[in-house]
Amino acid sequence: MKIDKDDLLLGGIVGGLVICSPFIAMYHIGKWIYSKTPQKIKERKAEEKKREEMNREIHELEKQLGLAERDDSYMHYDPLYMGNEQRGREGYWAELKKKVASGYKSPERIWMIKETKGGICAPRFGYGDCQVLLLLQKDCYDILGCVPIERGTLEHILNGSEGPGKLPRADRYVKAAYEMMTFSNDYAVRLQTLSECGNYQDYYVYTVPGRFDYQHLIQGKCEDLKTFIEDFDKKYKVSATEAEPENSKA
Fold it and tell me: Which of the 8 DSSP states describes residue 247?
C-alpha cells in the first residue's frame, strides 16, 4: 500500500498538535493563575497608577501649550508631521515637556503635502506628483482675501468650508480628506506637514495651484513654489499692527 507524503505530513501535524495541546493548555492556565497572584496584581496597579499620573501631566502640558482638549490616544504634538518618530505615549510626554520649556508655538504658515493615489497598481506614496497646501493661521492672514476653492466642485463640498467665499478650516479639511476614502476602495490619501501644527482648528487651508514633484519638493528644489509663497505672504499676510485687537491699542 502506497502512503501519500502529504497524508504523512498532515498526520504528523495533527499528531503534534494532539501531543502538545495539554502543554499549551497548562501554560495558559499557569499564566492566568500567575496574573491573579498578589504580586502581579500589585505590579499591575502600580503600572496603572503610573500611566494615570503620566496622562494627567500630559493634559496639563497640553493646556500650557494652548492645545485643544485631547484624549489619551495621542502620540505626537502633530500626528501629520513628517518628522514624527514612533516613540509611544511616553515619547509624546517628553516631547511636550521640551516644547513647554522652549515656549514652542506653531508657525503662522505651515506647508502641507497632499498625495492621492488610485488603482490596484498605484505606486506607493513618496513618488510622483503631489499638491501643496498652505495652512494659514486665521489671525495672521487675510483669509477672506485669499481665493477660495472653486465652489460646486466635489473638493469644495467635502473639504469643510464654512460657507461661500471662505477657505476650509484645516481640521475639517483633514477629516473630510480621509473620509473621502470611504467612498471608494480604489482611493488613498496621505497628508504630511513640514512644520508641527498644534491646533488645526486655528488654521485655514489654501491650495497652491498646480502639482509638484514630491522628491523635488522634499529636496527643496521647487524654486517657483518658494517664489509663489513669498509673493503670497506679501499680499495676504497681516502685519502685527493690523492683527492687534482694538482694545489693546488703548
Answer: G
Q: Is a pLDDT exceeding 60 seen at residue 150? A: no
List helix spans (H) across 65-153: 88-102
Angle between helices 88-102 and 38-64 (to 10 degrees): 30
Mean pLDDT value of segment 93-105? 95
Element (H, E) at 8: helix 5-35
Q: What is the pTM of this model?
A: 0.73
Question: By C-alpha distance, which of 215, 212, 200 is closest to 169?
Answer: 200
70-76 CB contacts, 8 Å cutoff, 24+ apart = none
Question: Shortest CA distance to 180 belongs to which of 148, 155, 207, 153?
Answer: 155
Question: Dmax of the chain from CA atoms?
Answer: 105
First vs last C-alpha separation in the chain: 105
- Reported as a pLDDT band with limits 50, 70 and 90, residue 95 is very high
Produce one character per residue of 180-194: b if its CB has 16 or more CB atoms within 10 Å, e if not.
beeeeeeebbbbbbb
Cite the DSSP H helix spans in 36-68. Answer: 38-64
Which residue type does 128 have? G
* Residue of 135, 126, 142 lying closest to 194 (CA atoms): 135
